[in-house]
Write a structure and sequence with these properties.
Elements lengths: L1 E6 L2 H18 L4 E4 L6 H12 L9 E4 L1 E3 L10 H8 L11 E2 L8 H14 L5 E4 L21 E4 L2 H7 L12 E4 L2 H5 L3 E6 L5 H9 L17 E7 L4 H6 L6
Helix pairs in contact: 1-2
Bound molecules: 2-amino-2-deoxy-6-O-phosphono-alpha-D-glucopyranose.
2-amino-2-deoxy-6-O-phosphono-alpha-D-glucopyranose binds next to helix 5.
Amino acid sequence: MIKILYGKCAHCASVNAADEITALLKSKPDAVLGLATGSSPIGMYKELIDRCAKGEISFKSVKSVNLDEYVGLSADHDQSYAYFMSHNLFDHVDIDKANTNLPNGLAADPAAECKRYDDVVASMGGVDIQVLGIGNNGHIGFNEPADYFTYGTNLVDLTDSTIDANSRFFASRDLVPTQAITMGIGQIMAAKKILLIALGKGKADILEKSLFGPVTPNVPASILRFFKGEVIVCADSEALSVIKEKHPEALA
Ligand code: GLP
């Protein structure tokens, strides 16, 4: 079931998302979090850092698995997702870093690394909530539009549109890695709950397409319509603008 939480602004949508994580951590302090990178979850992470500092929530017993990592970037490269997670969350909350997991972008054998990460994800015994952003082309994690849905962790070639979109974080486009290791669609769909964050008008079309168009691997996020549990969409008014126009009943 898809539940859309309307946020007037990006901050409001981030607070809505943080409320979901807060409720989970209060009811299950040793929850397993599936975490995401990108600009979309940053506001939610800020809010969670704040709540942790105030003692409202704790990450002491939390375990986490991240969705993806660029191939070729070390954990201390400032554009690696390992670095992103440390700087945007882990270094500012009481999580035990030994309980956090990301694919290793420098693994000499990416196939072996995918297998290792599958085992890591399996060892969690189930992800309680999987945080997702959405790419401009509908990708989730780094699962790009394709002819089929993948199940497990896989090595992907990034599409030109993703490289273009992510080049804003690099000094030049040719410094953007061309490959990534990502949890597969099947692993994402195995979570108990999904929290999709979409902010800004750049996401309005793809969000509508994903939530109301045909379910197809060409729009990877569309598979969320077949999710067995609850998909909570925390979006701001800009990201929801096309849905508001075409499917006003969905926001009622
Ligand atoms: C990246 C990440 C995704 C993220 C997406 C959207 O490519 N691999 O996990 O959801 O881009 O990013 P943003 O939130 O910055 O729009």
